[in-house]
Structure formats: C-alpha cells, structure tokens
Specification:
The chain is mostly helical and 248 residues long. Helix content is 58%, strand content 0%.
Length: 248
Amino acid sequence: MRTLAEARAAFPKAKQVLPARVAELAELKARYLLLQPEPSPGVTEYVARNRALFSLEGLTHASPDGFWGFVTSSLMASPGNLGTFYKGWNEDGPESTVASLRETIEYLLRGPGEEEDRLTQMVQGGTRGVGVVLLNKVLCVMQPDRFIALLPYESDNGKGKQDIGRVVFGLSMPNSDSTGLSVGRLAYWSNDLLRDAVLALRGPAFVNLEHAKEFLWNAFCYVQGWPSDFDDLPVDPASKAISDVPAT
C-alpha cells in the first residue's frame, strides 16, 4: 500500500501534458475567446448570492427557499441526481432538511481538520441526498478562484473530471476503486489538476475560473463531436486532432 505522499506524487500533473497537445489547446483557446470573451451571465450573481447564504450569519438565518434555490439550480454546474434529496425534503420536511444542511455546510467550510477529510466525512454522513457533487458546488461558490465547477470525479455518462482530463489533456487519472484514496482527496486533486492545466495554456487570460471552466467543458464536448459553443465557428480539423493524442 502506497503512502499518501507517494499517491500524491503519482497523481497526474499539469506539466505532463504533451507539448503538441498544449499547442493545439492554446489555439482552441484563442478561437474560444474570440467567440466567448466573457463568462456566461448570471453566474456572478449566483455565486455572490450563495456566498452570502453560506456565510456564518447567512447559514443561521437562511430560509428553506434559499437552500432550495441553491440545490436545484443548474447555474455554474448541474447539481446531479436529486432524487434522494427530494425524497428527504418531502419525508423529513423542509425545516429538518435545512437544519441538516446548515450543519453539513458549516462543517465542510469551517470544521476542524483537513479540507479533504471534511469533504469525505460530509459525503458519507451529511445531509440526506447531498453528495460529493453538491458539496463540491458549495466549495466552488465559496472559493471561486480555487475550485473549477466540473464536479464529479467519475461519471457513468462519461462526463466526469476523469474523462475531461483524459480527453482534453491526455492525462489518465486513476479509477477511484483502484487507489484506496478518499472521495475528498480525489475531488481536490482532480480539481487542482484541471485548474492548473487550463490556466497554464498560453495566450490571453480568462476573465476568471468560471470562464476557464466554460472553455474546458466546450473543448471536451467539441473534440468528441458533441454540441458545443464551437459549433458557431468553422471546423478546424487540426483542433480536433487532440483527441487522437494518446493519454499519458
């Protein structure tokens, strides 16, 4: 069994992206910034509103409507499957669910111990139906310069951070069941990898990390032939060639 330090050292790093892929992504970034020079409207207000909600005072006084608005919104990122959350809300009642949410979010943001461990603990024993996706979204709201709003590590539909790292950057992050690592550490490490890799691309800077995330998601969709913002531009065969570079 590897030590935590050994596992961290073995995890992919942004500097391992092949130079040819870096160049192709920089070209794709330049095209994207011509098309989308600003992040999507609405996210800035959503972040500000929910940062106030998750503050010490906000958590104490927030209404069920405020929490419901955060959980169910698709702004910034999809909240994922909410079936269990809805069931808990209906069976336990809004007030009970909100009381649990207050405790979960307060511990996640300001509890003792390491951040990664707090995330793991709240995924395993926090509010009913509030898993790693929604808790990561809380972190994105509270630390928008640290956390990139691409939320699941692995995804059954091929749209997790593991998939984005492989398809866009050619970096293979390990399957969670092969590492022995906690869900919190994988969430943090994969976040840092994608953030560092996209911000390292040469050319004009993104407006903010949300802007960088929107580029990264559209690049991921584009190279797979899925609908994306790049559909409004002429197809450049060279830019799609990044999907042909083997993962490292």
